[in-house]
Structure formats: structure tokens, C-alpha cells
Design the sequence.
């Protein structure tokens, strides 16, 4: 789906199919997405000056922060990367540097463009794959005048035998091509040559001292210089089709064009979701030292990336000026104002997400296209078993999840996974041994209460806490 055809209202409607509530957050990300299309259609002289309004989402775990960003990227068909701010370290410390999130974004964009290009050359690649399989199935023509002998092909009808060996060979290939396309040869074993990578990764002493991109480029150069070895493997025709399809499609794709398009795609449409940004806020650093030592340093390293800078990747140089950054955090201990002022200024849109209520849980179990109840019904359906959830059972599941969140720790909608797993694991174990195919199981409120009776009372829920 192309975001240029979606208005903010339509974007919210799409998000509503998967995420319950949180209207304010959906509204803001919808405007941010539509603004990208608007920027591409303004006058050229001001287009580069319009920068995205990055968004800071504030809310407890499990209320839908990550899901909103992920679904937004799918609606826009945009490269999307989720990172955790707590995994980064200040330059000079051992750990991931902040630029790696941009390199991950470009890698994601390259994969997306490559997949699209492969789809475009799929038919042409399929013909090449068939030719390779036919060469393996059919022996080459003999120099003598006698006709080739092909296993599984009868030429007893002399009226159908062409005048020359070349014509007969072509006729035979066409016959086998049809059999391959119909899947009649899928189990036949053939020998094929599979190209290797040309060499393993090169380990270097002191590699940690080198720039990550330089290392990647050096590795790429070494692999490019080394001849790609091929090895022979005996596989079925079905396996050969899958293996060779990747190789043949790759031959038809111009990787320089892919990289250029991917860089452009990442620059104009990329979305980077920075989770746990509250963990690098300095509100609780009173003790000093330890893990707090580089928190402010990480924020300062993030600043130029979010403001707009140039980052080198193995696929080329990318500018981050128009990448949309969405940051999120619970901010239980620290506050958004504990972030350095410069970084706060780069996230002008702040949205507070609501904690989920029992009513929200009921809607989450019923309404989304990927609701947990629908997922479990699909799992049982794979075994030929029909599972039905009554309205009072869904209500009881929501009540239990709310109580457990209140008693132990509020992990939002993730608690529903805990409760549903506890409720249905015994049934999943009994299928198909005790519960045979074509059976119907009804989940009602009484069953929910009996299965989950100890869940709220038992405070030692370590095995269920996510």
C-alpha cells in the first residue's frame, strides 16, 4: 500500500485494524507520514528545508508503542529499524555505536529493493533455472547420428521423431520442461553446481580499533577478489529450483542500481524506532559511575544523527536529514526533561499513551485482525479442531489479565500472552492424541476460571513474567 494515497484519517483507520485505542499517538504518526508525501510535492527551493517532526512516545510497556511504529512502516512500505537506546555506548566504550542504527536501516532498504527487483525478474530467472535443470536431466547430444537416449522419454512412435538429433533434443527438452512446470519431476535427483561465497570472513588482530564500515568494505573487497568456488550437490529438482532461483535472479539484478535506490528509499522514507530512550536519560544518575557513565555521551552521539548528518555504510553514504525518528520510553524513574535539552528539541511531538484497561483487553482479544484469540483458533484449525470463545470467556480472560497486572507488574497487553498460554497449553498438548480432528472445543467463563484459578493468587509468577 502506498502512503501517498492515504490521508491521515485513512492511516489511522489502517492502524485501528491492529491496535486498540491510543488515538492521539496514531493521529500524530499519521500526520508525520502524510507530511512526507506533502514535502515531496512542495516547491523545490524549500523542499530540502522541511524536516520531519520526530515523535517521542511516553507510556508503560505493552501499551502499543512499538506496534504503532511497526505498522506505520508497513503501511508506508518503508525501511524500518527498531533499536534499544540502552544497547548503545558512547564512542570510546566497548559496544554498539549509534551510527549502526543507520547502517541497519540501509541494510533493510537494500533487502527490500532487492526483493522487489527479484520479483520483477522472477519469470526470466525461472526460464534460466529450467534450462539448468534440463541440462542436468538430459545428456548432451552425441556427435554420432544416433538419437539421444533420455530416461523417462519414449520415442517409439516414428511419426513423431524429428529429422535430426538437434530437433529431437529440442523436442525432448520441451517435453521435460512441461513435466518440470507441472511438478512431475520434483522428486527426481540431479547434480547441480552451487556457487560458494569465495571465502570466509577474515579475522584481524585489533579489529576493534578499526572503523566498522572500513572493515565491511575491506571484507567486501577481499571477497570480490577471491574466485567464487562452486561445488556439486545432488538434490531433488524441487530443491534445485529453489536454490538456483536465488542465483539466477541475483545475476539479473544490477546491484549498483539496487544500492542507489535503497539509499534514496532509506533517506526519504526510513523510520528508526528508538526504544527505551528513558534508560539513557540522566535523571537517576546520582550515584555516578557504573552503567550511568556514558548515558549523556550516548545522547550527544545520537544528537547529530537525529538532527541530520552523513553516515558511511558499506552500500554508500546516507543523509539522515529526512529519516523519521520515533523514540519511546516508560519514563517511570526519569522524565523526558532529563534528556539533554538539544535532544529534547529534536523530538518536538510528545504523545502520552494510556494504560490499558479491562475494556481495552476485551477489545484487543476480539477486534484486531491478528487478535490472540484468532491466532489460537488458527493453530487449532491446523489440526482440524474448531475452538470457540464465548463472550463471557473473553471477559474473564480480560479480568484475569488486569488483576495479574495489578498484583505483580503492569506489562500491558503482553500479559494476555501469559494468560492465554496458561489457559490453552493443556488443550494444545492434548491435540491430536486426546482431542481428535473434527472436534469442537468451547472456551467458556467457567473453564477460564478453573484453568487460571491459581494465577492471580500465586505471587511467584516468575515463569510467566515476560
Sequence:
Amino acid at each position: 500500500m502506498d502512503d501517498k494515497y492515504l490521508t491521515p484519517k485513512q492511516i489511522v483507520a489502517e492502524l485501528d485494524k491492529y491496535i486498540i485505542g491510543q488515538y492521539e499517538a496514531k493521529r500524530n504518526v499519521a500526520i508525520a507520514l502524510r507530511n512526507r508525501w506533502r514535502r515531496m510535492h512542495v516547491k523545490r527551493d524549500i523542499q530540502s528545508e522541511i524536516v520531519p517532526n520526530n515523535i517521542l512516545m511516553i507510556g508503560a510497556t505493552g501499551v502499543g508503542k512499538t506496534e504503532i511504529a511497526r505498522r506505520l512502516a508497513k503501511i508506508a512500505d518503508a525501511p524500518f529499524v527498531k533499536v534499544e537506546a540502552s544497547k548503545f555506548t558512547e564512542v570510546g566504550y566497548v559496544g554498539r555505536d549509534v551510527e549502526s542504527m543507520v547502517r541497519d536501516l540501509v541494510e533493510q532498504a537494500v533487502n527490500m529493493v532487492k526483493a522487489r527487483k527479484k520479483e520483477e525478474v522472477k519469470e526470466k530467472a525461472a526460464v534460466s533455472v529450467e534450462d539448468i535443470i534440463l541440462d542436468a536431466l538430459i545428456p548432451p547430444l552425441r556427435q554420432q547420428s544416433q538419437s539421444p537416449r533420455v530416461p523417462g522419454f519414449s520415442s517409439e512412435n516414428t511419426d513423431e521423431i524429428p529429422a535430426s538429433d538437434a530437433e529431437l533434443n529440442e523436442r525432448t527438452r520441451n517435453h521435460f520442461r512441461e513435466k518440470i512446470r507441472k511438478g512431475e519431476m520434483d522428486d527426481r535427483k540431479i547434480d547441480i553446481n552451487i556457487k560458494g561465497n569465495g571465502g570466509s570472513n577474515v579475522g584481524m588482530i585489533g579489529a576493534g580499533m578499526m572503523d566498522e564500515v572500513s572493515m565491511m568494505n575491506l571484507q567486501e573487497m577481499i571477497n570480490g577478489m577471491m574466485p567464487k568456488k562452486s561445488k556439486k550437490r545432488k538434490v531433488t529438482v524441487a530443491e534445485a529450483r529453489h536454490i538456483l532461483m536465488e542465483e539466477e535472479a541475483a545475476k539479473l539484478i544490477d546491484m549498483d542500481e539496487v544500492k542507489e535506490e535503497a539509499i534514496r528509499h532509506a533517506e526519504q522514507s526510513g523510520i528508526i524506532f528508538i526504544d527505551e530512550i528513558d534508560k539513557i536519560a540522566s535523571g537517576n544518575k546520582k550515584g555516578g559511575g557504573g552503567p550511568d557513565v556514558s548515558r549523556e555521551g550516548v545522547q550527544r552521539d545520537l544528537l547529530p544523527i537525529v538532527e541530520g548528518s552523513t553516515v558511511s555504510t558499506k552500500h554508500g553514504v546516507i543523509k539522515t536529514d529526512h529519516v523519521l525518528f520515533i523514540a519511546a520510553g516508560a519514563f517511570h524513574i526519569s522524565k523526558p526533561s532529563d534528556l539533554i535539552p538539544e535532544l529534547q528539541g529534536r523530538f518536538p511531538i510528545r504523545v502520552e499513551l494510556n494504560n490499558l484497561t479491562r475494556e481495552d483487553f476485551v477489545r484487543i482479544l476480539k477486534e484486531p485482525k491478528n487478535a490472540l484469540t484468532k491466532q489460537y483458533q488458527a493453530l487449532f484449525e491446523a489440526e482440524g479442531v474448531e475452538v470457540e470463545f464465548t463472550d463471557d470467556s473473553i471477559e474473564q480472560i480480560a479480568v484475569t489479565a488486569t488483576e495479574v497486572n495489578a498484583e505483580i507488574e503492569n506489562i500491558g497487553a503482553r500479559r494476555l500472552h501469559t494468560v492465554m498460554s496458561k489457559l490453552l497449553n493443556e488443550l494444545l498438548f492434548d491435540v491430536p492424541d486426546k482431542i481428535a480432528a473434527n472436534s469442537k472445543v468451547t472456551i467458556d467463563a467457567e473453564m477460564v476460571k478453573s484453568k487460571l484459578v491459581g494465577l492471580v493468587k500465586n505471587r511467584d509468577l516468575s515463569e510467566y513474567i515476560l
